[in-house]
Q: What sequence folds into this?
């Protein structure tokens, strides 16, 4: 498969940046949530590829089976994780006790549990996100 075909295939079934302003987070063909959203008995797991030390915080787009996100703090003493959790709390309007990192506290690939939110609701909120 050509590289262009692979990129087109990934973007069609994954998260896309739309004109640099918002995120489209559902599959264009089947209406299913993207690969970076996994159902969980307590809500939804969001798979994240984190970029610390970024100029701006926000959602950058797909990264394989993860959603690439950026935060300003460095990955020292949990600062990047704290910034990520703060960003997610504001994005999904969740209290601190309903969001936590399940895996990856010392790695770029992380899994965050969003308690009480379905994968469909998370996808909808991601579509509405605008930088700024």
A:
């Amino acid at each position: 498969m050509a590289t262009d075909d692979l990129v087109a295939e990934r973007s069609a079934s994954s998260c896309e940046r739309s004109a640099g302003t918002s995120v489209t987070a559902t599959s264009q063909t089947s209406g299913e949530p993207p690969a970076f959203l996994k159902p969980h008995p307590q809500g939804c797991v969001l798979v994240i590829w984190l970029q610390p030390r970024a100029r701006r915080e926000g959602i950058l787009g797909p990264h394989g089976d993860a959603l690439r996100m950026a935060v300003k703090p460095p990955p020292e003493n949990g600062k990047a994780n704290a910034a990520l959790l703060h960003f997610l709390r504001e994005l999904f309007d969740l209290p601190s006790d309903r969001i936590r990192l399940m895996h990856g506290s010392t790695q770029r690939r992380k899994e965050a549990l969003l308690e009480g939110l379905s994968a469909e609701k998370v996808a909808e909120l991601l579509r509405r996100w605008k930088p700024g």
Summary: Residues 3-128 form a domain with the Conserved Hypothetical Protein Mth637; Chain: A; fold (CATH 3.30.1200.10). DSSP finds three helices and eight strands in the chain.
